[in-house]
Amino acid sequence: MITFRQGKIGETVKVRKLHGEGAVKRRIMDMGITKGIEIYIRKVAPLGDPIEITIRGYELSLRKEDAETIEIECV
Q1: Neighbour-count burial of 49, counting CB atoms closer than 10 A to its CB (0-12 exposed, 13-18 middle, 19+ buried)
Q2: Over its length of 75 residues, how does the chain's per-residue pLDDT go in tens digits?
Q3: Whole-prediction pTM
Q4: Superfamily of 4-74 according to CATH
């Protein structure tokens, strides 16, 4: 299983599955991160938190904990 946290800067990835439960999963889905969507990884902060991405035409920052709950595959 490859998580979003392991993605590289400049890479476009596709969401395979969302792990997590309850409010955490709902919050991620409310941000527009759903199964099958493509995400471009723009930047990663020096200490790895947060990760800046482009999804559905807008920019978003994700925390490490949230990124670890998103399973991805390379496009």
Answers
A1: middle
A2: 788 778 889 999 999 999 888 888 899 888 889 999 999 999 988 887 889 999 999 999 988 888 888 999 887
A3: 0.84
A4: Ferrous iron transport protein A (FeoA) (2.30.30.90)
